[in-house]
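explain this:
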Amino acid sequence: MVFAVRNVTIVSTPDNVVGPSHRPPPPPPPPTQAASKIFADPMNANAFTQAVDQLLARAQDRKYSSKGEIFTAQHLADLAISHFGLDAIVEDWKISDSVVVDCLRNGGLVLVAYDKDGNHEPCCKKGAKAHWALINGVGWKTDDQLGTVEWNLDGNNVSRTSSSNIPDIVLCTHGKSLHQAVWSYSKLFESSWNLEFVNDAVLHGAGVGSNQESLNAMDRDDYEIDAKEGTTEQTLNPVTAPEDDDDDLGYDAAMFVEPEGFRPPTPQGSMQEYERDPTHVQPGTPSKLDLQMIGHHALWAHKIWNAGMVLARHIDADKNIVNGKRCLELGGGASLPSFLAAINGAECAVATDYPDPHLIRSIDRNCRVNFPELVQEGKLKALGYQWGQDLSEVFAALPDAVRKFDVIFLADVVPVFFTEHRNLLKTCQLALAERGMCYVYFTSHVVKFADRDLSFFQLAEREFGFAYEQLPDVKASAMFPDDVGDLKVRETVNCYKMWMK
C-alpha cells in the first residue's frame, strides 16, 4: 500500500498492518524543505525532541501505540492528518508504479513497512519482524548511452542511469537503528508485500493473537488455527516459526502483547438520510434515500460531502445533465450523484471508489436497498476502481461498447487526493466519450492549499487536453467548522465543468 501525505509518502503492507516498530516516525519536513534536508541532522536532534514527544503522546492517547510501536498505516494516516495537518491517502503500491520516484522528485519522503533480518535488511519472513524505514533517495545502474534525468535534489541535470521509472536501488534510513542503507528496490518491494499478518494481528509468544474477523481475512494454507476451549479467543500459529533475530532489543519482541483497551473500538457505521427537493421528485421515484455509511475510513468515505450533495441537487434540478446518458462517478463514497443520475433517466450509472471491499459493499448495499429495480435492470452498478489503472472492468459495466461515458462526476476528490490529480485526469481522459462532460465540484477544506486545488484545472488543460468553465459557487455549512482558515472559503462549494478540447 502507499500512504501519501503532503510531503511524505508512506508505503505499507498490502493489508495496512505491520509488526512492531519500536519508535515513532520522525515528523515530516516543511513543504519547502528538500527530501534530504531532514537527514542533515541526527534523527534524535533536539529540534525534533518536543515534536516526537507530542506525537507519541497523541498516539498513546488515541490508543494507537503503547511505547512508540505503530502497527497500521491507517493510524499513521490519522496521525499525519491530526498532528501535522497533512493530507493522507492510502493506495496500492505496485512495483511498476513510479509513485516512489514521483514523491522524492516532489521533495517528499517515503515511509515503507518491510520485513527485516538481523541486520535490518529486507527479507521475506511473512511479517515476523516487520519494521518501518524511510526512503530518501533512489538510484539506477549507470548507462552512458542514455541522456539526462529531469531532476535531482539540487535541481541540476545529472547523467541518466536508466530509461525506466523503476529504480534499481533505494537509499533508506532504518526506522529502528536510524542508520543509512542502500537496498535493492525490488527486494524492498517483495519484503513489504510478503507481510502476511493482517487486520488487528500482533506478534507475541503464543503466536498471533487475533479476532475472528482477522482470522477469516488471513485464510492461508501455511497456518494452523487453534481455538482455546471455552473462550472466543483464537491463536494463529505459524507451521514453521521464524528464527528470532531481535537480540538487539534487549528482550524478545515476539512477547509483545497489546494491553487490554490498547486499540479504540472499530468505528460503527451510521444510517443517514438524504431528502430530495420535493419540486424535483418525479412520480414513481423515492423522495428520500436511506444511506448506510461505513465507519471511519482513511479515504474519508464515511462522510456525505457537501460537494456530492450540491452536485446531486443540480442533477435533480436539471435532469438533462444525465437523461439518456452513461454516467461514471469517481471516488463516489456516498455516491449521491450516481444515485440521482440513475433515478433521473440515465442510461446507466456506475458508482466507483477505491477497491476496498467494505467500501464497495456499502455502496452496493445502498444501490440495492434504495433502487432494487434499477440494479436488476443493470442501470445502476457499484464497482471498485483505482484511478489511473486499467478501465476494462469499468467499461464492461456499460450496456455495450458503442460509446464510453457521456458524463463523469468528481465530487470533492480534487482537494482530498491532490497527489492523484494525474491519475484522476488520465482516467477521465480515457473514460470520457466524444463530446462528454466532467462535473468537478469541491470545497477547499484546507484554505492554505486552495491554489493547489485550482491547479487541477491548469494541469487538465496543459497536459490532458481539457477545457473547463467555472459555474456559480454554492454556499454550504463548513464540514469541519473548527478548522483554521477563512470560513467563507470552507463554506463554498466550487462548481466546474470540464470537457475535451
Summary: The longest strand covers residues 432-442. Confidence is low (pLDDT under 50) at residues 1-48, 144-163, 197-255. The chain has 13 helices and 20 strands. Residues 2-193 form one domain.
